[in-house]
Structure formats: structure tokens, C-alpha cells
């Protein structure tokens, strides 16, 4: 077991977190992607949160993180999204014309506890970008077929990649 400790506590709290830019705009590319990664790592370091695995896909962020129990997930996500928005707009002033009012991230996020599935989730996050690229290469007709299958199977509206492809 990969435990950490505080003064009187042994802990191993890992979470899989997914969050998106506002309106799910495909804004996480090139230099912006590198800056976002650096900003998220820096903010996690400030709060003592360990990033086990992370990936910035074209329209969402996947993170497998280890958050100390003194910090709730909602506190951490409010801090991470709020501060990173400010830092992104400071570094890329031209984005204020696209995103106005310094709102870069959408309001919500997806989180699940990891438990003993750390290796499986880390592998999923690593492979997610390849799957996104494969999905982007699908024709519109193939994409519509996948959505139809998802609707029939009830997978549309699931919190996370019901067909192992991001919506």
C-alpha cells in the first residue's frame, strides 16, 4: 500500500478527476496545453497534492491525484480551477476576448475514488489521448453511428466515457 502520513494520520486518498473548458471548447492545444500542464502541476505542489497521472486531451483534463485528507475534493477543485483560470488569462491575455470574464473552465467536474484500481485508471488516462485521436479520425457518419448506439444502450449522459471514448 502506498500510504502517506500527516502528524497523526496515515492516508491513501486517490481520486480520478475529469474537468472541461467552458462550453467544451477545444482550447487545450500546443503552447496552451504545455502552460496548463505547468500551471496545474504548480498549483498541486502548493497544496501538497501529488499528481500520479494526468493528461490534457483536446477538450478535457484527466487527473489521477492523491489529495491529503485535510483538504476536501471540492475545496481542491475550487482552488485548482479558480487559480488556474486566473493564471491562464494572465499568461494568455488574448483569451479574454474568446472567454470573457476570466471563466476558462466549466462549472462542474467528475470525480471518483480510486481504491485499488490505481493501475487500471493510470493506464486509461495514458491511453485516452490515443483514443481521442482515433475518434477524431472517424468520419461524421461513423461518429453519428456511435452516438446512436450509445443512445440505444443508455450510455449517453453517463458521467464518464461510457463507450471508452469521450463524448
Question: Could you explain how this protein is built, in words?
Answer:
The chain has helices spanning 30-47, 73-91, 96-99, 118-137, 140-153; strands at 4-5, 10-11, 14-19, 50-56, 61-66, 110-113. It starts with a strand and ends in a 14-residue tail after the last helix. Strands 4-5-3-6 form a 4-stranded antiparallel beta sheet. The chain has a two-stranded antiparallel sheet with strand order 1-2. It is an alpha+beta fold.
Task: Summarize this structure as a short list of keywords or feature phrases.
single chain; 167 residues; alpha+beta; four-stranded antiparallel β-sheet; two-stranded antiparallel sheet; 45% helix; globular; disordered C terminus
Short description:
By secondary structure, the chain is of the alpha+beta class. The chain contains five helices and six strands.
**Largest sheet report:** 4 strands, antiparallel
- How are the strands of the biggest sheet laid out side by side? 4-5-3-6
SS strand fraction? 15-25%
Mean pLDDT: 77
Structure class: alpha+beta
> How many helical elements?
5
Helix content: 40-55%
End-to-end Cα distance, whole Å, is: 34 Å
User: In total, how many beta strands?
Assistant: 6
Task: Provide the fold topology.
Layout: E1 4-5, E2 10-11, E3 14-19, H1 30-47, E4 50-56, E5 61-66, H2 73-91, H3 96-99, E6 110-113, H4 118-137, H5 140-153
Antiparallel strand pairs: 1-2, 3-5, 3-6, 4-5
